[in-house]
Specification:
The protein has about 425 residues and is an alpha/beta fold. It has helices spanning about 10-15, 35-40, 110-120, 130-140, 150-160, 165-175, 195-205, 235-255, 265-270, 295-305, 325-340, 365-375, 400-410, 420-430, and strands at about 1-5, 25, 30, 45-55, 55-65, 70-75, 140-145, 180-185, 210-215, 260-265, 315-320, 345-350, 385, 415. The longest helix has 22 residues, at about 235-255.
Length: about 425
Amino acid sequence: MIEITDVTEGSPAARAGLLAGDLLIAVNDTVIHDVIDYRFAVTERRLKIRFQREGAEQEITLHKQEYDDPGLGFATALMDEKRTCGNHCIFCFIDQNPKGMRDTIYFKDDDARLSFLQGSYITLTNLTDEDVDRIIKMHLTVNVSVHTTDPVLRRKMLGNRYAGESLRHLKRMADAGVSMNCQIVLCPTWNDGDHLHRTLADLFGMVPAVESIAVVPFGMTKFRQHLCPIPAFTQETARAAVEQIEAVQRWSLSANGRRIVYASDELYLLAGLPLPEDDAYEGYPQYENGVGMLRYLMNEFYEALEDAEYDGEPRFLTIATGSAAAPFLEKMMRDLEEKFPAVHCRVITVLNDFYGHSITVAGLLTFQDLLAQLKGQELGSAVLLSETCLRHDDVFLDDKSRADLEAALGVPVIKTKVDGYVLLDTVLGFSDGTV
């Protein structure tokens, strides 16, 4: 039973007489264990709700529009506790964090329900056969961290004796037509080369259930002491991986009519290779995995710039970003200034002294690095930061807030969406960065 903590005033649930404090048991004979059961059950127009109030079981029927929310609130989004990760992956980024970070940094989840709700990736080691039954029954889309399809190697890489056996869930879901997006964290000398070839061959054998595959490079911080040794990527090893992936893409275009597998932006940058053009990303199915994010941002920005007009006052402001995105943003801002000479937006590359310079993405910049490298600079009227720096309640990874940075720098710090249209509007002063 799950406690109902809130009933929206005027909602179907409120009109039917449900109250905060009631304990939800079942909807239309589906026993509710968590949000997945609940969302599956409440899509109907007519809901027969069984609940407990003051120790007595009761039942009511309510009517609503199909797919509308009945108006019940619960203590957590999952209506249950998160399932923590039982793996000890050799490449785990969380294990490479020092003490004193934001509390949420240290939580490892491996929860299929979060895969469905938020797009996070699961390793399958937490799944039971009953969980797979439910995924199949409800036709859920699942994001899977595969890494390798060699059972022995997977046990070693995930540090879990069940990691090889759990691959049977992947095959079972594919056979049942469950849509899956897959991820491979590539570690030099571990799962690259021939191992990558085998993994991709096995996953392509599950197409069309496997809709897309992202290959992203292992990230190494300077705090990686006393952990399993993994060589850092070199330009040569990164280029070999990209060339291998692109060869598979060419074959897949011929065999399947689409590429299906994609290398992340970071892998191209490590390889010193230009990013693919827009059509190579085929709708950006792995955008949230850093696949095509820079290309998409540039496309949006230049589309917006082509139609933009500006006749306002002179503007000077700053974008602070990681070394990966900085060259692209610098070109975008130069082209903006060429069209609108009154607008100057300086791009400052913030090196990641905290984690080490091999960490180049804006989302892993800390308060202390931003402050140290921006303090005393000519920043103009504001500093723009990617929203990826501040995903959790406007707090940086090292537990300082955006307000702290504003106070220390003496200028507003604007959190901007990763959106080319919003970026241009923000630089021109037409948006506050959140539209």
